[in-house]
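Figure 3 (text version): structure tokens given as input.
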């Protein structure tokens, strides 16, 4: 099927057409022509919309699809539908499954069951066996089977020696270790960010110190081993400063921030809505401003949704007993765009496209003739209300039903397939 995209503004700094409004012709899954105007031909599917924008396909490098083991919360099929609806043509899935993705068999399960889907699915292997932080997993075998990186997801590796050996070992085959930073001896049993709101609500707080201490340790390990490390889930002003200083020293540090930490303050928990109970927790306005500044100056490389489905039994309970997490694939872009403040669209798109691809050592993609069509279509100015019908995930743990957003995904194109949102 051939596709003609009419009058779309290109957002792609790597493209000669960046910032220009053009027609784009796709034939046999390849971009064959980009011009100011292309005449409509027979047997061509035309895509056009008011204020249409076009960029390389987005990549979310932190998605929990719960499959295998927790398919009652999410499975590969529903997670992929949610990703496509949210504008993502590629996702990296976390190791937090049952069993965890800690051997090549689990990696192959993910790869084999998603190879023909419109969304490219990249498994992230566990750094340690069973994500227990005690012994290294089969990292090299997993990489050979298709694991794109290694992480114990939200299980922080408390043993510095284990993480040091993981960094040293991964250097041998150009592997990337990704680390969630949370000193459990400090944050243990914490329910939300430690601050004025937690004190008012009588909830045990999670100090910024818990994250910052672990980031400082991990930066030291990266320096000692001369190995790359990716810091996931950055959420505090102090963390941004630590990473900025490490990068200034030339250390091989990259970092990502979740859409909710970039957009929402901890005061939202005053109503005890467990859908706002997250890990890392929502922080304060100064933290959010520091995260945005870090994204704009390159300290933070990528934005993630941290899509984390939970069933009703995990959320509709007393706040203290509720599980962390919200679904985020369908709302990540809208949430960021609605709260972007001084951040330019180009900054946001780079953090969803070229930057995460570069740090994961994936082939770069661009909007140019001769390139395979891997495209996200969106309208950054369209206002819309997020309703339950927009949820493609198997779970519905989101606080955003009924929320008015600015910025809507129109659809995605990848691997000769098209999905357009209604």
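Below: residues designed for each position.
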């Amino acid at each position: 099927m051939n596709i003609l995209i009419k009058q779309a503004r290109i957002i792609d700094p790597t493209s000669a057409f960046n910032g220009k409004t053009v027609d784009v012709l796709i034939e046999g899954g390849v971009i064959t022509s980009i011009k100011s105007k292309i005449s409509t031909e027979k047997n061509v599917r035309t895509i056009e919309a008011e204020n249409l924008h076009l960029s390389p396909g987005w990549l979310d490098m932190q998605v929990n699809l719960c499959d295998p083991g927790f398919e009652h919360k999410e499975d590969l099929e529903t997670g992929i539908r949610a990703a496509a609806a949210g504008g993502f043509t590629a996702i990296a899935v976390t190791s937090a499954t049952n069993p965890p993705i800690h051997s090549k068999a689990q990696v192959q399960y993910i790869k084999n069951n998603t190879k023909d889907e419109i969304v490219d699915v990249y498994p992230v292997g566990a750094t340690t066996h069973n994500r227990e932080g005690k012994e290294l997993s089969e990292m090299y075998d997993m990489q050979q089977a298709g694991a794109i990186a290694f992480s114990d997801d939200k299980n922080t590796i408390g043993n510095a020696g284990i993480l040091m050996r993981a960094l040293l070992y991964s250097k041998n085959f150009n592997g990337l270790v990704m680390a969630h930073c949370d000193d459990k001896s400090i944050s243990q049993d914490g329910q939300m960010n430690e601050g004025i709101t937690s004190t008012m609500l009588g909830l045990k707080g999670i100090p910024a110190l818990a994250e910052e201490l672990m980031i400082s340790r991990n930066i030291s390990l990266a320096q000692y081993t001369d190995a790359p490390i990716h810091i996931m889930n950055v959420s505090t002003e102090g963390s941004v400063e630590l990473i900025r200083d490490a990068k200034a020293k030339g250390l091989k540090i990259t970092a990502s921030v979740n859409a909710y930490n970039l957009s929402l303050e901890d005061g939202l928990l005053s109503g005890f809505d467990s859908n706002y109970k997250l890990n890392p927790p929502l922080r304060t306005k100064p933290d959010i401003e520091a995260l945005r500044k870090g994204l704009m100056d390159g300290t933070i490389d990528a934005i993630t949704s941290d899509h984390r489905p939970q069933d009703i039994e995990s959320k509709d309970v007393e706040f203290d007993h509720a599980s962390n997490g919200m679904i985020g694939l369908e709302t990540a872009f809208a949430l960021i765009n609605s709260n972007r403040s001084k951040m330019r669209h180009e900054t946001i798109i780079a953090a969803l496209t070229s930057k995460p691809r570069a740090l994961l050592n994936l082939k770069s993609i661009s909007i140019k003739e001769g390139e395979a069509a891997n495209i996200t279509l969106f309208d950054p100015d369209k206002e819309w209300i997020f309703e339950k019908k927009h949820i493609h995930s198997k779970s519905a743990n989101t606080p955003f039903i009924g929320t008015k957003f600015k910025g809507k995904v129109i659809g995605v194109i990848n691997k000769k397939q098209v999905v357009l949102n209604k």
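The mean pLDDT is 97.
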